[in-house]
Amino acid sequence: MTTQPPSILVVDDDPRLRELLQEYLSQQPFNTHCVEDGKAMDDILAKQGFDLVILDIMLPGEDGLSLCQRVHSAYPNMGIIMLTAKGDEIDRIIGLELGADDYLPKPFNPRELVARIKAILRRKDTANTPVNTHQNITFAEFTLDTERRQLIKNGEAINLTTAEYTLLKVFTENANRPLSRDQLMSLSKGRDHNPYDRSIDVFISRLRKTIEPDPGKPVFIQTVWGHGYVFVPNGDKS
After folding, report:
1. What is the CATH number of the domain that holds 87?
2. Is residue 237 part of a domain?
3. Could you say which of 68, 96, 128 is where a domain stops?
4. Global pTM?
5. How do residues 95-142 score in pLDDT, each as one tens digit?
6. In this predicted model, what pLDDT tens digit does every residue of 136-194 receive, in sequence order?
7. Count of beta carbons in the 10 Å neighbourhood of residue 11
8. Is residue 50 included in any domain, yes or no?
9. Total of domains in the chain
10. Which structural domain range is residue 194 located in?
11. Cis bond upstream, residue 233 (ω within 30)
12. Which distant-in-sequence residues (6+ apart) come within 8 Å of 25 by Cβ?
Protein backbone atom coordinates (compact mmCIF):
# COMPACT_ATOMS: atom_id res chain seq x y z
CA MET A 1 0.00 0.00 0.00
CA THR A 2 1.40 3.43 -0.99
CA THR A 3 1.93 5.82 1.90
CA GLN A 4 0.87 9.38 1.26
CA PRO A 5 3.57 12.00 1.91
CA PRO A 6 3.00 14.36 4.84
CA SER A 7 0.94 17.42 3.96
CA ILE A 8 2.42 20.84 4.74
CA LEU A 9 0.65 24.22 4.62
CA VAL A 10 2.79 27.36 4.33
CA VAL A 11 1.21 30.71 5.26
CA ASP A 12 3.46 33.61 4.24
CA ASP A 13 2.82 36.86 2.36
CA ASP A 14 6.22 36.86 0.62
CA PRO A 15 5.60 35.42 -2.88
CA ARG A 16 9.30 34.66 -3.43
CA LEU A 17 9.51 32.68 -0.18
CA ARG A 18 6.29 30.83 -1.01
CA GLU A 19 7.71 29.88 -4.40
CA LEU A 20 10.99 28.73 -2.86
CA LEU A 21 9.29 26.64 -0.17
CA GLN A 22 6.75 25.20 -2.59
CA GLU A 23 9.56 23.91 -4.79
CA TYR A 24 11.92 22.83 -2.02
CA LEU A 25 9.42 21.13 0.29
CA SER A 26 7.73 19.33 -2.59
CA GLN A 27 11.07 17.70 -3.41
CA GLN A 28 11.43 16.14 0.07
CA PRO A 29 8.73 14.96 -0.71
CA PHE A 30 5.97 16.78 1.13
CA ASN A 31 2.51 17.47 -0.23
CA THR A 32 2.92 21.26 -0.03
CA HIS A 33 0.39 24.09 -0.35
CA CYS A 34 1.23 27.78 0.06
CA VAL A 35 -1.17 30.63 0.83
CA GLU A 36 -0.63 34.32 1.54
CA ASP A 37 -2.80 35.11 4.58
CA GLY A 38 -5.18 33.89 7.28
CA LYS A 39 -8.30 34.06 5.11
CA ALA A 40 -6.72 31.83 2.47
CA MET A 41 -5.54 29.53 5.26
CA ASP A 42 -9.07 29.18 6.62
CA ASP A 43 -10.42 28.47 3.14
CA ILE A 44 -8.02 25.60 2.46
CA LEU A 45 -8.29 24.15 5.99
CA ALA A 46 -12.05 23.93 5.49
CA LYS A 47 -11.44 21.70 2.46
CA GLN A 48 -8.57 19.45 3.55
CA GLY A 49 -6.42 18.45 6.49
CA PHE A 50 -2.69 19.01 7.01
CA ASP A 51 -0.06 17.41 9.18
CA LEU A 52 1.79 20.66 9.84
CA VAL A 53 1.41 24.38 9.18
CA ILE A 54 4.25 26.88 8.81
CA LEU A 55 3.09 30.34 9.93
CA ASP A 56 4.85 33.63 9.37
CA ILE A 57 4.23 35.99 12.28
CA MET A 58 4.15 39.17 10.19
CA LEU A 59 1.09 38.73 7.97
CA PRO A 60 -1.39 41.21 6.49
CA GLY A 61 -4.71 41.22 8.31
CA GLU A 62 -4.75 38.66 11.11
CA ASP A 63 -1.19 38.12 12.33
CA GLY A 64 0.55 34.78 12.71
CA LEU A 65 0.29 34.71 16.50
CA SER A 66 -3.50 34.98 16.35
CA LEU A 67 -3.59 32.33 13.62
CA CYS A 68 -1.37 30.08 15.73
CA GLN A 69 -3.79 30.30 18.64
CA ARG A 70 -6.77 29.52 16.41
CA VAL A 71 -5.06 26.60 14.65
CA HIS A 72 -3.91 25.08 17.93
CA SER A 73 -7.42 25.35 19.37
CA ALA A 74 -9.20 23.96 16.29
CA TYR A 75 -6.59 21.38 15.22
CA PRO A 76 -4.66 20.32 18.36
CA ASN A 77 -2.89 17.46 16.55
CA MET A 78 -1.55 19.65 13.74
CA GLY A 79 2.12 20.60 14.07
CA ILE A 80 2.93 24.33 14.03
CA ILE A 81 6.21 26.04 13.14
CA MET A 82 6.42 29.82 13.48
CA LEU A 83 8.64 31.92 11.20
CA THR A 84 9.88 34.94 13.10
CA ALA A 85 12.03 37.97 12.38
CA LYS A 86 15.61 37.59 13.55
CA GLY A 87 15.97 38.91 17.11
CA ASP A 88 12.24 38.95 17.95
CA GLU A 89 12.57 36.64 20.96
CA ILE A 90 9.36 37.89 22.58
CA ASP A 91 7.30 36.88 19.54
CA ARG A 92 8.95 33.44 19.54
CA ILE A 93 8.12 32.90 23.21
CA ILE A 94 4.53 34.09 22.72
CA GLY A 95 4.17 31.76 19.74
CA LEU A 96 5.32 28.78 21.81
CA GLU A 97 2.95 29.76 24.61
CA LEU A 98 0.07 29.89 22.13
CA GLY A 99 0.67 26.33 20.94
CA ALA A 100 3.52 26.36 18.39
CA ASP A 101 5.80 23.31 18.41
CA ASP A 102 8.87 25.14 17.18
CA TYR A 103 10.08 28.35 15.58
CA LEU A 104 12.69 29.40 13.05
CA PRO A 105 14.05 32.94 12.67
CA LYS A 106 14.32 34.50 9.21
CA PRO A 107 16.45 34.27 7.15
CA PHE A 108 16.82 30.50 7.43
CA ASN A 109 18.30 27.60 5.50
CA PRO A 110 15.49 25.52 3.94
CA ARG A 111 17.36 22.39 5.02
CA GLU A 112 17.03 23.52 8.65
CA LEU A 113 13.29 24.02 8.15
CA VAL A 114 12.99 20.49 6.73
CA ALA A 115 14.89 19.11 9.73
CA ARG A 116 12.47 20.88 12.10
CA ILE A 117 9.46 19.59 10.14
CA LYS A 118 10.71 16.01 10.19
CA ALA A 119 11.46 16.18 13.92
CA ILE A 120 7.90 17.30 14.70
CA LEU A 121 6.38 14.68 12.38
CA ARG A 122 8.50 11.95 14.00
CA ARG A 123 7.23 12.96 17.43
CA LYS A 124 3.66 12.94 16.14
CA ASP A 125 4.12 9.48 14.58
CA THR A 126 5.67 8.10 17.77
CA ALA A 127 2.90 9.57 19.89
CA ASN A 128 0.15 8.22 17.63
CA THR A 129 1.58 4.76 16.90
CA PRO A 130 -0.65 2.06 18.45
CA VAL A 131 1.14 -0.41 20.67
CA ASN A 132 -0.05 -3.81 21.86
CA THR A 133 1.04 -3.15 25.39
CA HIS A 134 1.30 0.26 26.98
CA GLN A 135 1.77 1.42 30.50
CA ASN A 136 -0.12 4.39 31.85
CA ILE A 137 1.98 6.64 34.05
CA THR A 138 0.28 7.96 37.18
CA PHE A 139 1.34 10.79 39.46
CA ALA A 140 -0.83 12.65 41.98
CA GLU A 141 -4.31 12.97 40.39
CA PHE A 142 -2.91 12.69 36.85
CA THR A 143 -2.58 9.75 34.48
CA LEU A 144 -0.50 9.99 31.30
CA ASP A 145 -2.17 7.65 28.80
CA THR A 146 0.68 6.65 26.49
CA GLU A 147 -1.60 4.96 23.97
CA ARG A 148 -4.01 7.86 23.44
CA ARG A 149 -1.29 10.47 24.21
CA GLN A 150 -3.61 12.16 26.65
CA LEU A 151 -3.17 13.56 30.11
CA ILE A 152 -6.09 12.59 32.34
CA LYS A 153 -7.02 14.45 35.52
CA ASN A 154 -9.85 13.07 37.64
CA GLY A 155 -11.29 11.34 34.56
CA GLU A 156 -11.12 14.45 32.37
CA ALA A 157 -8.80 14.52 29.32
CA ILE A 158 -6.46 17.50 29.01
CA ASN A 159 -5.32 18.33 25.49
CA LEU A 160 -1.55 18.59 25.11
CA THR A 161 0.39 19.69 22.06
CA THR A 162 2.78 17.15 20.56
CA ALA A 163 5.70 19.04 22.11
CA GLU A 164 4.08 19.17 25.55
CA TYR A 165 3.16 15.49 25.52
CA THR A 166 6.62 14.42 24.38
CA LEU A 167 8.35 16.54 27.01
CA LEU A 168 6.08 15.29 29.81
CA LYS A 169 6.67 11.70 28.70
CA VAL A 170 10.44 12.30 28.78
CA PHE A 171 10.10 13.64 32.32
CA THR A 172 7.97 10.72 33.53
CA GLU A 173 10.36 8.19 31.98
CA ASN A 174 13.25 9.86 33.80
CA ALA A 175 11.56 10.53 37.14
CA ASN A 176 13.81 11.86 39.92
CA ARG A 177 16.71 12.19 37.45
CA PRO A 178 17.97 15.75 36.91
CA LEU A 179 18.06 16.57 33.19
CA SER A 180 19.93 19.43 31.58
CA ARG A 181 18.39 21.57 28.84
CA ASP A 182 20.69 19.81 26.36
CA GLN A 183 19.34 16.42 27.44
CA LEU A 184 15.73 17.59 27.36
CA MET A 185 16.16 19.08 23.89
CA SER A 186 17.80 15.92 22.57
CA LEU A 187 15.28 13.54 24.17
CA SER A 188 12.15 15.52 23.32
CA LYS A 189 12.98 17.38 20.11
CA GLY A 190 15.63 15.19 18.52
CA ARG A 191 18.18 17.96 18.15
CA ASP A 192 20.89 19.74 20.10
CA HIS A 193 20.16 22.64 22.41
CA ASN A 194 21.02 26.14 21.24
CA PRO A 195 22.00 28.27 24.26
CA TYR A 196 19.71 31.04 22.95
CA ASP A 197 16.77 28.68 22.41
CA ARG A 198 14.08 29.31 25.03
CA SER A 199 11.59 26.70 23.79
CA ILE A 200 12.30 24.12 26.51
CA ASP A 201 11.73 26.72 29.22
CA VAL A 202 8.48 27.84 27.58
CA PHE A 203 7.15 24.27 27.27
CA ILE A 204 8.05 23.63 30.91
CA SER A 205 6.20 26.79 31.90
CA ARG A 206 3.14 25.54 29.99
CA LEU A 207 3.33 22.10 31.61
CA ARG A 208 3.65 23.68 35.04
CA LYS A 209 0.48 25.69 34.41
CA THR A 210 -1.25 22.41 33.57
CA ILE A 211 -0.07 20.09 36.36
CA GLU A 212 1.23 22.20 39.24
CA PRO A 213 -1.07 23.21 42.14
CA ASP A 214 0.89 26.50 42.20
CA PRO A 215 2.96 27.04 39.01
CA GLY A 216 4.99 29.67 40.86
CA LYS A 217 6.08 27.06 43.39
CA PRO A 218 6.41 23.85 41.34
CA VAL A 219 6.57 20.53 43.15
CA PHE A 220 6.47 18.14 40.17
CA ILE A 221 8.77 19.83 37.63
CA GLN A 222 11.41 21.35 39.84
CA THR A 223 14.31 23.57 38.81
CA VAL A 224 17.79 22.26 39.53
CA TRP A 225 19.80 25.46 39.68
CA GLY A 226 22.86 25.43 37.47
CA HIS A 227 21.79 22.20 35.75
CA GLY A 228 18.22 22.02 34.44
CA TYR A 229 15.06 20.36 35.73
CA VAL A 230 13.92 17.23 37.56
CA PHE A 231 10.50 15.57 37.56
CA VAL A 232 9.42 14.48 41.07
CA PRO A 233 6.24 12.37 40.68
CA ASN A 234 5.27 12.38 44.35
CA GLY A 235 5.70 16.13 44.59
CA ASP A 236 8.22 16.01 47.43
CA LYS A 237 10.61 18.84 47.80
CA SER A 238 14.14 17.87 46.75
Report:
1. 3.40.50.2300
2. no
3. 128
4. 0.67
5. 888 888 888 988 899 999 999 999 888 877 755 554 444 578 888 889
6. 888 888 988 887 778 898 888 887 877 888 889 999 999 999 999 888 888 876 554 45
7. 24
8. yes
9. 2
10. 137-231
11. no
12. 8, 10, 32, 110, 113, 114, 117
